[in-house]
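Subject: design request, 208 residues
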């Protein structure tokens, strides 16, 4: 889902032990809020595309929206493609956040990446079914990740920077081996495969 960056709930804090959580048998959680703070990546535009990934988010829906915006597609045929997108996730949503980023980098080539890890403070409000027992607010510190993908170059000296992925071009030798593997099931190819293995052995004997 996309959220307004102005309402971002990211904050970098030092990891400290969380207060004890109220017992489930006595209290029930009625609200969960996150402290609002700027992104841990400085210099981001106020209107940057923000993809907030939660534990229950559908990767397919997130990628469909992000890919369309990065490629200038969507309901409005004249939509302008965005140059940057930032993915954020916390707790159990971190793994899903990384998955979305890796898939999007394969769909949209040439993306620069900048990743930041930090911790985020989440406030939970618990109440008791008993009227004479006051509610409690528990502050929890959870790990979080913020990943920026950009079509424009980023500072390669910045901690967490990754250059665009480069696709390796198959060499003639790799192509020859691939052709051999595709036909290795036939009896006529067994002799060729044996000869190839012998050539490799004599050319570069294994080290003992």
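Subject: RE: design request

Done. Sequence follows.
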């Amino acid at each position: 889902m996309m959220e307004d960056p102005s309402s971002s709930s990211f904050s970098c804090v030092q990891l400290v032990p969380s207060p004890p959580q109220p017992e489930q048998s006595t209290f029930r959680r009625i609200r969960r809020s996150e402290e609002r703070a700027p992104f841990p990546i400085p210099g981001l535009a106020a209107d940057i595309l923000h993809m907030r990934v939660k534990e229950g988010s559908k990767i397919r829906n997130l990628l469909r929206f992000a890919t369309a915006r990065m490629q200038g597609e969507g309901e409005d045929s004249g939509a302008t493609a965005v140059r940057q997108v930032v993915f954020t996730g916390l707790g159990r949503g971190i793994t899903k956040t990384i998955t979305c980023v890796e898939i999007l980098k394969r769909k949209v080539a040439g993306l620069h990446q900048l990743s930041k890890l930090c911790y985020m403070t989440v406030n939970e409000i618990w109440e008791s079914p008993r009227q004479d027992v006051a509610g409690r607010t528990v502050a929890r510190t959870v790990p979080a990740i913020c990943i920026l993908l950009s079509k424009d170059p980023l500072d390669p000296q910045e901690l967490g920077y990754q250059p665009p992925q480069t696709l390796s071009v198959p060499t003639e030798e790799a192509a020859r081996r691939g052709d051999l593997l595709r036909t290795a099931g036939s009896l006529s190819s067994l002799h060729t495969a044996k000869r190839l293995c012998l050539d490799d052995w004599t050319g570069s004997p294994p080290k003992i």
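The beta strands are 28-34, 49-53, 84-90, 112-127, 136-150, 161-162.
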